[in-house]
Amino acid sequence: MAAGVATWLPFARAAAVGWLPLAKKTMPKPPVDNSSRSDEILYVNVSGVRFQTWKNTLDRYPDTLLGSSEKEFFYNEDTQEYFFDRDPEMFRHILNFYRTGKLHYPRHECIQAFDEELAFYGIVPEIIGDCCMEEYRDRKKENQERLAEDTEANEAMDAPLPPHSTSRERLWRAFENPHTSTMALVFYYVTGFFIAVSVIANVVETVPCRPPKGSVKELPCGEKYQLAFFCMDTACVLIFTFEYLMRLFAAPSRCKFMRSVMSVIDVVAIMPYYIGLVMPENEDVSGAFVTLRVFRVFRIFKFSRHSQGLRILGYTLKSCASELGFLLFSLTMAIIIFATVMFYAEKGTKGSTFTSIPASFWYTIVTMTTLGYGDMVPNTIAGKIFGSICSLSGVLVIALPVPVIVSNFSRIYHQNQRADKMRAQQKVRLARIRMAKKGTTNAFLQYKEDRDRDSDSTALCVKNKSAFEHQHHHLLHCLEKTTNHEFTDEMTYSELCMTESVGFRTSRSTSLSSQQGAQNNSTGCCPRRARRRAAMRLANSTVSVSRGSVQELDTLHVKTTSIPPQTRSSLNAQADDLKLNCGEQDFTAAIISIPTPPANTPDESLPPSPAPIPGILRNTRATAYTHDTVKISSL
Amino acid sequence: GKDPNPGGQTEGSKWQKPRLSRKSLMKCCLVKWIIASTTQQGPEWDSSDSDLELSMVRHQPEGLEQLQAQTQFTRKELQSLYRGFKNECPSGLVDEETFKTIYSQFFPQGDATTYAHFLFNAFDMDRNGSIRFEDFVLGLSVLLRGSVTEKLRWAFNLYDINKDGYITKEEMLAIMTSIYDMMGRYTLPSVRDDSPFEHVEKFFQKMDRNRDGVVTIDEFIETCQKDENIMASMQLFENVI
């Protein structure tokens, strides 16, 4: 409590006068305090809301923005106040911290906004008072988890395969994300079908069928159609074995894969069949063989790869292990206690079913779970009394851990729902990003058209572009001049790509993201157009934008090659030496990119502009540009 | 009649079977609890209510002008002092526990509670168990703006625990022990058990002129005025506020 200590220190120092007559040695000199004693009122203007406070109040915490000389940077001479262009609502809490020494977390505020404000004012969040600390910690953890799993989901799901991926990696990916390729999807459904077939076969083969001709006794279907069932079983096991081996081959870490739950289930599902094959037709071991057939029912767990709900259930049970353990333990205790009591209570009666304490266990379990089969019933009065206590306590003991498990399940289920929603929204986001990219580049190309046409770079007032756009276009123009190449758009490039499908030389890529470089062969060009992700192909420029350090915003990758400078008109002509890098390119829009790349890469901030593509070859012109006011991000 | 104590006070005598008389019954805790919970909540209700009231009692200090007259502080100083005081103690009163907590914050290594207790009594001049703003400010005025004699008088008042006008060896020993307690364990050289006692002896040798085993206020002031170290150090704390 820095404020309190600061206030009382002068008092404690004054009280030191009491030691003076007793002092053995002379007292040291007091420190010189040069600061002005008089307290003054400071005015702090936060986005128009004026706060006033004593200077001493702010000086209590000298390592924060307001308590140090850093606030002088925000001093406005004209109005004689400190002006901060921040949220006044949040500032209220910040200022209260200075006044009372306790920082409170406003529950209705977004945790990230609050953190940002704290970071701005130089206050560490650790000093949040105890009253609000728990809430703050919980919200922060929740937010972090959410962000982590969102980025994880993004990366995991839609990350494109690195081009050097071996067939093994592709296979593994196909197994893990079935919707990435049609083959994987087919396989997924086929295995699902066979799992179902296998399970149904297991079930049906025990149903009694009509007895075969010449016999009276009813047989289970399994024995009547033994061959048919055997064939079906064999087919299923073959498929499962094949799947298991493929997974084992494709797994990045075989040991880890073999230890995973799903793999164990797979093994357990197919082992009984093989053991049954190997085992001789011996009477002694047939009992064991029968037991093994029970394990075939584990095949039903293979469905958990296909059903998210099952996985969630399994995960919930795993995370509630302690509650389940508690439930089990308390139940066991109660069972033993009540079984003992019931046994001794019913000991005397003739013909009592409570023959021993373990025999009473069955009664206790049936009673506590309120099943009440009635096969064991107490006859004595004491027995009945204890029996009723037993059933009452059973309800209580079971009802206690269940809500915990339920709430865990609900939380995990909603988390998964959220992940699915995010994935669906990703598609919409990507579509918007593509539009934004197109819009920006078109704006620049339009600017170039005007420029070339008018041959006067300043006569651009026809379109009401903002100063920002002007400067941005000038910047891109500078880059073109630097590299001696020109920007163009998707249509032009793709058309060129198509016409140049024959006689490509291996494209020499000056790109800096060399991962996409060397392997890109000419044949890869047009088939790749079928890829869903927008590939903006630009001819005519060596501009290549490497991946800037943009967090959570996509960057525009423009892959280009070294092409001799060409004017736009020559694009129409078939250029034999046109090397186009039609390799696999991934383009994403750069909304804000922080420049980390070397010289010849531009930073593109794309103000979206919903204009139709001014196809250069078509020479159309967009008639009106309506600029959105959104400059930075349309995400 | 005579009821035997169920607790069996008599040692050595035969254990007497406790008789169920009314008195012994009333002593049983269970009985007390039953009676307490079933009777009207009259007296408990009032006491809890009055507790509530006490915490809401607010002490208003005397007016600024009066305090200005009584102390040596300027108006602005008084205002600043009161703002700080009121911020820390919104109710306007500092009780002994709070005082001990506050004072202990400055001496984290040792145990300052005993000395804080003596200090509290020195400030709490009207002995009502809490320091009001007036006591606070009057004390500070003496310590920071008072004359040397006033300061010495204040110190004497601090040492004289029972405020009878004499400092005895026991009182001085208590004060000295509490001061040494504030040092804590980790000192160089370490505090020996008889260090306070030695210090008290030295003090009495210096102060007790007539060797009667007590120090009076006049002896104290006279001796201190003759000691130039003490006189010099009295000026040290002028600029605290």
From TrEMBL, chain A:
One of its GO terms (cellular component) is voltage-gated potassium channel complex. It is a multi-pass membrane protein. The chain crosses the membrane at residues 183-204, 224-245, 324-345, 351-373, 385-406. SUPFAM superfamilies: POZ domain, Voltage-gated potassium channels. Keywords: Ion channel, Ion transport, Membrane, Potassium, Potassium channel, Potassium transport, Signal, Transmembrane, Transmembrane helix, Transport, Voltage-gated channel. The keyword Transmembrane applies. GO terms for molecular function: A-type (transient outward) potassium channel activity. Component of heteromultimeric potassium channels. Identified in potassium channel complexes containing KCND1, KCND2, KCND3, KCNIP1, KCNIP2, KCNIP3, KCNIP4, DPP6 and DPP10. This is A-type voltage-gated potassium channel KCND1.
TrEMBL record, chain B:
Gene3D superfamilies: EF-hand. Coiled coil: none annotated. Pfam families: EF-hand_7 (PF13499), EF-hand_8 (PF13833). Belongs to the recoverin family. InterPro entries: EF-hand-dom_pair, EF_Hand_1_Ca_BS, EF_hand_dom, Recoverin. GO terms for cellular component: nucleus; voltage-gated potassium channel complex. Transmembrane segments: none annotated. Keywords: Calcium, Cell membrane, Ion channel, Ion transport, Membrane, Metal-binding, Potassium, Potassium channel, Potassium transport, Repeat, Transport, Voltage-gated channel. Residues 111-146, 147-182, 195-230 form the EF-hand domain. GO terms for molecular function: calcium ion binding; DNA-binding transcription repressor activity, RNA polymerase II-specific; potassium channel activity; potassium channel regulator activity; RNA polymerase II cis-regulatory region sequence-specific DNA binding. This is Kv channel interacting protein 3b, calsenilin. It comes from the Eukaryota. GO terms for biological process: regulation of potassium ion transmembrane transport. It is found in: Cell membrane. Its main location: membrane. The keyword Kinase does not apply.
